[in-house]
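Good morning N.,

You mentioned wanting to compare the apo and holo forms, so I went ahead and generated the holo version with zinc ion. This is what I fed in:
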Amino acid sequence: MYVYYSRKKPFEELPEEMTAVWICSGENCKRWMRDNFTFSLIPVCPECNSEMVRGEKMLALLENTSPNQSRGRR
Ligand SMILES: [Zn+2]
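and this is what came out, ligand included:
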């Protein structure tokens, strides 16, 4: 049997990691988004137009789902 260790931790569930996100500052709004984009300006919540603030969330590590980052073609 060939056992492939990519890391020293055993596989359990999807690994989670503190991920940079933008969180809506509106009190009744729980909108947030991943910080996949390099915002040069503070983004505004698309739902309530409040400013979004930088924060972090524990999120499962994902492959790039962002259409923003096209990989490799071209
Ligand atoms: Zn909002």
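The mean pLDDT is 78.

Happy to go through it together on a call whenever suits you.

Best,
F.
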